[in-house]
Amino acid sequence: MRRFLFALLALGLIGSSCAATLRLSGTAPTQDNISQSCSAPILTARGSAPVAVHFAWSGPVTGEDSLLTVTGALITFTRNLPAGSYLVRCWASDSGGVGCDTTLAVNLKGPPWKVRL
Q: Is the C-alpha dihedral spanning 44, 69, 20, 58 positive or negative?
């Protein structure tokens, strides 16, 4: 199983009063996990083979999408979603299989209303 080391760096908020933007930034895996276990990984350097980074979210709406990239590449995933609480999962996969996942609970909200003058 491939180890997926993903850093969730930012959640942006834009849109209308009931919409928000989920923005996830991170780095594609630079190591493979040759132990077949996420709780006791044995990590080795990855080659330069392509890797797919997957995102799944559940909350007011659910969905899944992925990006194809290369080892160590910086990636940004953006999706407009209704405001609300979401559980977001991220993982990588390649010809060696599906890697370990990273999960984050987020609360997306719309932007503030007008300034009162």
A: negative
